Amino acid sequence: MTVSVCVPVYRAHDQPNVATLAASVPGALDGLDGELVVALNGIDAEHAGVPSEAVVVDLGINRGVAPGWNAAARAARGEILVFANDDVLLGKGALAVIANALDEHPDAGVVGPVGANWDLSGPPREIESVDPHDAPVGELHRCESVAGFLLACRREVFERIGGFDEHYAPCICEELDFCLAVRASGLNCYAIGGVIHEHEYSISKARPWTRLRHNGRTEMLWRIHRRNLRHFRRKWAGRA
């Protein structure tokens, strides 16, 4: 079983970053075969701090999270695809716990350390966090979605769903949409106990008037949010 950690990078920043994530991967694999696959979103590998052993896919410009994850997954060789942000640190055995959960539970479509339940009667609104960090290692807690900073699935599930919907580029709603699609296919989402990690939220805490450069233009975060919610409602109306 090979585990591929797929990470899009669009800017250089202080730790935690892609270099510290890469350094944490071997311990997180805990003996499993694995690799780091980095999608460069408008930044070069040296500036981003990508280690030489990583597989690199250069998108040329910042195309966003979903296109970055999709491109990395296509270049990956693993049966287990782990999608992460570059501001995550993985603890000892974290990837092994994730991979074993997917291997041992055929009904598990998406897994990760933190999940959520939602009110989807209007604009998506998180009503409950599912965070079993104190639960026994490997214990599964069903949820409606898994947080996008670290989530994983089997390659066959990724291909069945068609990957992440790139309409959500550059960011916002891509992981919720993916989890809904996986659940619509008949599988479940789970938060897993005992996945040791650290994560520093970045774009999710940015102010609405923050400007992001993507696909050759700049756009305020509130406009991206509004556009993506509109797409989400059209796509999932009567289905979610």
What is the overall pLDDT average? 93
**What level of helicity do the residues show?**
25-40%
Written as H for each helix and E for each strand, in order along the chain, the element string is EHEHEHEEHEEEEEEHHEEEEH
* Rg over C-alpha atoms, rounded to the nearest angstrom: 17 Å
Kindly report how far apart the N and C termini lie.
33 Å
| Strand composition percent | 25-35%
Oligomerization state:
single chain
**Spatial sequence of strands, sheet with the most strands:** 3-2-1-4-11
Count the DSSP helices. Answer: 7
The global form is: globular
Number of strands: 15
Identify low-pLDDT runs: none
Structural class, please?
Answer: alpha/beta
Biggest sheet: strands, sense, closure?
5 strands, mixed
What's this, in brief?
The protein has 240 residues and is α/β, with parallel strands linked by helices. Helices cover 30% and strands 30% of the residues.
Note the topology.
Elements: E1 2-9, H1 18-29, E2 33-40, H2 45-48, E3 55-58, H3 65-75, E4 80-84, E5 88-90, H4 94-104, E6 108-112, E7 115-119, E8 125-130, E9 140-143, E10 145-146, E11 150-154, H5 155-161, H6 174-184, E12 188-192, E13 197-199, E14 211-214, E15 217-220, H7 221-236
Parallel strand pairs: 1-2, 1-4, 2-3, 6-12
Antiparallel strand pairs: 4-11, 5-13, 7-8, 7-10, 9-12, 14-15
